[in-house]
User: What shape does this take?
Amino acid sequence: MNIHRIETGRVRIKENQIKRTKGIIPPMLNILFGKKWAEWVPIYAWVIDHKEGVIVVDTGETHKTSIRGYLPKWHPYYAFAVDFDVKPEDEIGPQLLKMGINPDKDVEKVIMTHMHTDHAGGLHHFPNSEILIDKNEFKNASGLKGLLAGYLPHRWPKWLKPTLIDLPNDRYFTFNRSMPITKDGKVMIVATPGHVANHISVIAEVDGVHYFLAGDTSYTQENLLNEIPDGIGTIESVNTLKNILSFSKFNPTIYLPSHDPLVPKRMTNKEVIPFIEKIKLSKN
Ligand SMILES: [Zn+2]
Assistant: This one.
């Protein structure tokens, strides 16, 4: 089994979205009216090359985000708080073709960590794959309610009929709810609520190393280590970060969130999540 990273362009958001700021102003207002933009960051999607078939995790963004009228600019988040830079050749479809994988017929499953546009923008490349989405996330992201919450359900492919998943209460190390995706149990879905209420992550084990395809559990590993939640998530964010850190104490884990510019370096060096104790010591 191999794990490949695909960068489907870049996104720019506000500093206050990356890290939650303390204070009495609601986090969303801090994001909308925050003056400080963060640096441009990558938008990653993932390919798990497994003997039972190719599994894609998240689909990245589409170049259509730069076409006038595609994004709902009446929505304050899209008007004030996000910018995309995605070229047609950055999309996941053409990039898979270049790797020798035909998205039309070679991808068995697509697993969505959640349905935000920078993860769901490439769904149209997979008309013949089984698409797995958490059932409550799909509900929350659909229709007018979804649109008001910042999802773009009207941009999903018309043919989209996902397999709705409802993670059972099966413990997998520190995660309360989980489900294997492959028969050998080497690819698991785990519940990682926080960034959105029903966010899920995928853990793929290759030779004892756990590749943690984290979606948006945090934007960076630094925020994971410091247990700093993002500016839009629910109260459960910090618990999820703690669960990931505890998991990494039992298992060597390479943490791969969707927007961390240090992901390529960690993959090349097979850099696992360091023990917290070690970090505290090194600060003294
Ligand atoms: Zn997101």
Notes: The first strand starts at residue 2 and ends at 13. The chain has one domain: 2-283. The chain has eleven helices and twelve strands.
